[in-house]
Structure formats: C-alpha cells, structure tokens
Amino acid sequence: MTRVPPVTPDNSRQSGNDDELARLQAWRDYLLAKIDHEERASTTPMSTMPMSLRIVILGLIAAFGAVLLAGIWTGQIEGAFIIWTVLIGGVLMFIGSREVRLFGSRFLIGEFAVFILQGVNGYPPMWLIGRPDLRDQLARCEAQISRLREHRP
User: Fold this and answer.
1) What pLDDT, on a 0 to 100 scale, did the predictor assign at position 118?
2) Of 13, 40, 61, 112, which residue is least crowded by CB atoms under 10 Å?
C-alpha cells in the first residue's frame, strides 16, 4: 500500500488559513494515494497472489473436475446438471462483478445482493449506504483548497 507521510505545518510562521490549507493538502495527498492503490488493486487482482497459491488453486480445480467427470462416467451425476450449473454460475459471476452507482456510492451488484440478504436476516449494513466515495471526498477537498487559496492575503 502506498504510504503518505503526515504533513505537520510549522505554526510559528503560518496563519490559521495556512494551517487549514496544509491539513487539506495532506488529506488530498492521502486520498490520491488511496485512489491510486484501489485502481491498481482493481486492475491487477491476480498479480498479488503468489505463484505457489495459483498452482494449488489450479490443482484443486483440476481435482474437482476429475471427480465430476468420474461421477458422470459412472452415471451418478447427470451431464446436463453439470452444464447448467457451469452456465448459471458463469452468468451469476458476470452479473455479480458489474459495478453500479447507488445512493451516491459505487457498489458491485454482488455486494448489493449480499447487503439485501443481510438486511433480510436482520443485519442491515446501512453504514455503507450513503458513505462518500473517495473521488467525491477528493472533489470536496479540492474545492475547499481552492476556496482557501482565493481568500489568502
């Protein structure tokens, strides 16, 4: 994760507006680093996974496939069941990974479905709905910085 060093202004030679400006600029740098980190994580999700773990996962998938094929050949599992399961699972994974903007926040459709299911079970995750997006926070911070710079002597 990208770390941004904290900025502590020297109070002996700065006024109150300069203190606030320095604080807002440090917050802007932090938000930019967080946005950069999230974009990198979303574009390269597999790059952080170690190669040994990838091999183990691939082996588990191959073993599961071999068990399913053995079940089909012995007649214990219907081939149509496997085909429909793979098709429906693929469609659900595709739909669940789509991003939608609700209540001013970005959500994956799968996350939103989980939120609804949690609400049905009595655990409403309302703290996530309406939370400001990082880009919205950055825009607000930039607006405050420009406002402070305009009123600077």
Assistant:
1) 74
2) 13
Whole-number average pLDDT of the chain: 77
Average pLDDT over residues 77-88: 87
Residues 18-26: contacts with CB under 8 Å, at least 24 apart: 18/152, 20/148, 21/145, 21/148, 21/149, 21/152, 24/141, 24/144, 24/145, 24/148, 25/145
Torsion region of 6: left, alpha or beta (phi above 0 gives left; psi -120 to 50 gives alpha): beta
φ/ψ of 105, rounded to 5, equals -125, 150
CA atoms of 32 and 68, how far apart (whole Å): 47
Quote the radius of gyration of the chain (alpha carbons, Å). 25
- What is the pTM (predicted TM-score) of this model? 0.42
Backbone φ and ψ for 137, nearest 5 degrees, come out as -65, -40
Per-range mean pLDDT, top range of 26-30, 43-47, 123-127 = 26-30
Q: Which two tokens stand for residue 59?
A: 């082996």
